Each structure stands twice: as structure tokens, then as C-alpha cells.
Amino acid sequence: MAVARDIVNKVQKMRKDTKLMQDDPVDMWAEVRPGKKSKGLVRKSMTAKRDYIIKLLRRGLWDSSTRQGHEVLVNEESFVIQDDDELVVSITVRGPFFNPSAMKELTKNDPAAEAACRGYLQTFDLEGLSQFCKKNTAKVTFDGKTFEMKHDKHFVIGPSEASWLK
């Protein structure tokens, strides 16, 4: 429990130092890097106490391996937790979050078409993305083909809505 509380305290202080309000539309990501004398306490705590950490933070703390590379970084800090492992926490602006397998299926494994579809949705702010979610679809024409991305199947807003991560 002490390690989990230390993680939460460091993340909350980072949010405060970044001047974020509780309802700011951001996502938080964490990566554990083993220290020289690592006992694995941080990694174990991040796994075993995940629900407790999320409850205290009142928002998700996503594994950084699920980041998709297009997120806009607000802040990133590194902490050594209890002389064990290094915890790297990144805060990003909430934006579109894509279902990789559904996007590959939609574009028939065409990387350029997938990049065009992703790029199109990334041009919208949160309000614009919300409008697409209400319509349920976003159409993109690329190389003479039209691709229809569906909310909840091909994309969502932020990883917390991504049913394919659960």
C-alpha cells in the first residue's frame, strides 16, 4: 500500500505543478523502468494495486505501451519510488484513440490509408471529435476510396472509452 500511495502522491503533485484542474481533458500514462537495485516493487504495485491507484487519482493511469504516438504531450516527469524503480509519467491532451485491428481491417492493411484516416480525426479538437461521436461516423476519402470510421469500433475519445483495452 505504501508504494501505491507514493505513486499517487507523485502523480497528484505532478498534476498540480502542471496546473491541471480535476476535470481537464487529459490522459495519464505510466512506464516503470527497473532501477539498479530493483526489487520490482513499483511494477508489482502498479499491477496489484491498479484499482486502488485509479480510485485515488479519480482517473486512469494507462500503461505507456498503449500510447499510439500521436498524443500531444503536456508534461512528462520521472520519479524514483522508494529507492526502487523509476516511474515515468506522461500527461497528454485527450484526443482520438484508435482500435488498431479495426483500423487495419477497415483500410485492408494499407498503411497510407490508415495514416490518412487517423490524421483526419487528429485535426479536430475535443468538441469536433464529440460531434463525430454523435453522428457515429467519420468519412475519409483517400486514393479514390472512401473509408467510414465508426465511433466505438474504429475510434473513441481517449483510452478510457476503449472497450478493446479491457
Would you mind describing this structure in some detail?
The structure is a single chain. The chain is of the alpha+beta class. Helix content is 37%, strand content 28%. The chain has helices at 2-17, 41-48, 50-57, 100-106, 111-122, 126-135, and strands spanning 26-33, 61-63, 73-81, 85-93, 96-98, 137-142, 145-150, 155-157. The protein is elongated.
The chain-level structural class is alpha+beta
Provide the succession of SSEs: HEHHEEEEHHHEEE
- Helix proportion range: 25-40%
The DSSP helix count reads: 6
Q: What's the number of domains?
A: 2
Instruction: Give the overall pLDDT as a whole number.
Output: 93
| Spatial extent as radius of gyration | 18 Å
- First-to-last CA distance: 24 Å
Strand order of the largest sheet: 2-1-4-3
The biggest beta sheet is recorded as:
4 strands, mixed
What's the number of extended β-strand segments?
8
Short descriptors:
single chain, two-stranded antiparallel ribbon, 166 residues, four-stranded mixed beta sheet, 28% strand, alpha+beta
What would a concise description of this structure say?
The protein has 166 residues and is of the alpha+beta class.
How would you summarize the topology of this molecule?
Blueprint lengths: L1 H16 L8 E8 L7 H8 L1 H8 L3 E3 L9 E9 L3 E9 L2 E3 L1 H7 L4 H12 L3 H10 L1 E6 L2 E6 L4 E3 L9
Parallel strand pairs: 1-2
Antiparallel strand pairs: 1-4, 3-4, 5-8, 6-7
Helix pairs in contact: 1-3
